[in-house]
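Example pasted here:
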Amino acid sequence: MVSNRIGVSFSLRQASDTAMVFEMADIAEALGYDSIWIPEAWGRDAFTLLAALAVRTTSIRLATGIVNVFSRTPAIVAQSIASLDDISGGRAILGLGASGSRVIERWHGVKFENVLRRTREFVEVVRLIVRGEPVNYPGEVYQLRDFSLAFKPPRKEIPIFLAAIGPANVRLTGELADGWLPIFASRSLLDSGAEWLAQGAERAGRSSDDITVASYIPALIGPEGPPLIRRHIAFYVGAMGSYYHRLMVRGGWETQADEIRRLYLVGQSDAAAAVIDDEMLAAVAITGDREQAVDRLQIFRELGVSLPVLALPQGASPDAIRATLKALGG
């Protein structure tokens, strides 16, 4: 059965405009959106903004989209997400990911290493703490003992979603997480990802049907959409590390991915964006008029995305964002 749930995420710059985030959250909640996902990199932190949304809203779920597993300990993330769940009356979702070496090493000053092991232990420790159990955890990365959370959040199980695009990370998601957060989810990635999720779920003795596929889908209707989303995609492929380049290569766009990266490295970001043709754009994004956008959203649902998360590109005008939310959430 195809779900009709839908979420929305902001760009880093949009998330720094709290007045706009508040307004768009009000619109999304009124339209029945499932969730709002707040990113975090080197601007506003996600938890503070989500706490403000928790006291402003009443029904929409509130998600970190994402916080990384390097810059905070699992204990402080568990305290933060449990506090958000308490303030919001049980509406919190914890979105976690590795981020990348550029952010982790240059901004946080932490070595970007042992990603799979760190992620596994991070999830296990957060779950122990949120359940209220005494925490004695003799891990390879984290060693905790003789503490427990000093208050009771509304739920002992807060959903944990993992941002993953490589085979090993997606298998780990299938094994441990409640949801998978892919980005630029073409048919190729979703087909491969479904197989990797199932392999991970089988290791844990559960069904991958129980894992929510919450894909970030760049989306903006109207004439602003294609150029802004092309720039959005090119920035990730060209400037945000090798993960996204490899993702596009696996999707069948090796020539384009190589050219995007080459142009970005020599400072030609506009030319890099122009490499993304209409076919590539349509495979990973939602653009066009209202009718075309609704049709594209349905295709993603049929490909297995159970919770599409509209990723509004940086530079989108408030009017275009409002129109997109209303067109796809109505």
The chain has 15 helices and twelve strands. The chain has a mean pLDDT of 95.
